[in-house]
Amino acid sequence: MNNQTAKRLYLYLMAGFMSVFAFIGVTHAQGGMHHEADKHSRMFERMAQRLDLTDEQQTAVEQLREQFHAQHAPLKERLHATRKELNGLSTVDKYDEDAVADLADQLGELSKELAVAHLSFRNQLQLLLTEEQRAKMATYHEKMANKMERKTRHLEKRKERIERRQARHEAHAE
């Protein structure tokens, strides 16, 4: 797989995860959970409207979201706790590379498990949609992937400009 194909696949996956999060209603432990729940409810409502979901489909999707959240909340909590623990190791006076490696492995496994669960959720969601709705969702994913790609290119160019300025500044300082 060439670099461009890999980048495009990554962007499609990210756009897919964004839509999954819109349906899941993920809340963060930090920040206002009520606010996050409202935000994701609005995202779900916009997606339901964009796809023109029937009342029956909306009920089925809501049940699927609730089931996913109930089943995977402990996994998300473990993922969050592992990240926090890993970040805490960087402030310890004595660096323990084995402990860091073990936590990084755990983090990778938890992330993998959650990614598989998200894609399974997305597949189940797709089964609830009509062919026309799936086409609309695919178009939306394509649009979001393109938007993310443009944003990534913009950020890369910005980073390059900053690096060039820093290099000129350093050369001028010498």
How would you portray this structure in words?
The protein is mostly helical and 174 residues long. It has one domain (3-173). Helices cover 87% and strands 0% of the residues. It contains five helices and no strands. The protein has helices at residues 3-24, 33-51, 55-89, 97-128, 131-173. Helix 1 (3-24) packs across helix 5 (131-173).
Helix content: over 70%
Sequence of secondary-structure elements: HHHHH
Q: How far apart are the termini?
A: 44 Å
Number of domains: 1
Instruction: Note the main sheet.
Output: none
Radius of gyration: 20 Å
Please count the helical segments: 5
DSSP, total strands: 0
Oligomer: single chain
**Mean pLDDT, as a whole number?**
81
General form: extended
What structural class should be given to the helix and strand makeup? mainly alpha
Low-confidence stretches: 24-33
The proportion of residues in beta strands is under 5%
Give keywords.
mainly alpha, extended, 174 residues, 5 helices, 0% strand
How do the helices and strands line up, and which of them pair or pack?
Layout lengths: L2 H22 L8 H19 L3 H35 L7 H32 L2 H43 L1
Helix pairs in contact: 1-2, 1-5, 3-4
